[in-house]
Amino acid sequence: SNQIFTLLTALTALTVQTSVTVVSESAVALAARGACVIVACRDPDKAEEAVREIKVRSRSLNVLHMELDLANLRSVRGFCKNFLQREKRLDILINNAAMPGVLDWTDDSFSMCFGVNHLGHFLLTNLLLPRLKECAPSRVVTLTCSTYKYQKLNFQDLNYNLLPFFTYCRSKLANVYFSQEVARVTEGKGVTSYAVHPGLVQSGWTCHYSVLFRMLMQVIMWMFFVPCEVGAQTVIYCAVSQEAAKHNGGYFVDCRPAALRPFARDAAVAKKLWEVSERLVKEA
Length: 284
Known about the structure:
Helix content: 40-55%
CATH class: Alpha Beta
Strand order of the largest sheet: 3-2-1-4-5-6-7-8
Strand content: 5-15%
CATH architecture: 3-Layer(aba) Sandwich
Number of domains: 1
Shape: globular
Radius of gyration: 17 Å
Structural class: alpha/beta
Number of helices: 8
Order of helices and strands: EHEHEHEHEHEHHEEH
């Protein structure tokens, strides 16, 4: 389709790596389809570099950058106010919740993983939901990871920040619950929601770690991980496929619905996380 529509892709708070992210590959594909692509990212220099590359590869000039720091809820609120004043359409929101497990804290004193991967996107999506409803049918695509299955949420310690891998797993499980609850709260309003595991991809997430770890992971990724172009296919599928629209609230792997572990399908937990998240972002 050559229909013009608006795609907002919200990247992680720290960096956007050109050529090596699933979402940048998705942005290229969707810009080539006629989307107005808005890249939301904290680092303006790297974002502009990404915008230039997306323009060249998609042969579209309808790509721009807006500043957004998902590790700062004041920035999220300011971004949404600015976006809603400037843009009259929002058809697809891609939440690239990809902050790796790091022992750090957001500006609002949440653990970096939970704060960026879940709360930042939670607030962003909620503030943009009215526009998504106005532009229905519209979609919210949230990137998660199959590692969600290795942890469960502890509502007594959502800010768990001791073991980086487990912290990351919990934030990915929160993404799964969040995506399901978006589908529930917008049911009948023309907004559909999907959680996507793009696969283990050769991305730039190791930039947050030591040189030795980066070198080791580069070898492992080269041997076992898939290129970002491959990982992007499921994101693109959920963004535009009519078939995907039949599975609102679904979890997708390899361009098809996939089964979740039973505990990750608990509607009561998803609703509780939503309510707790509302309180946390309001208090921050």
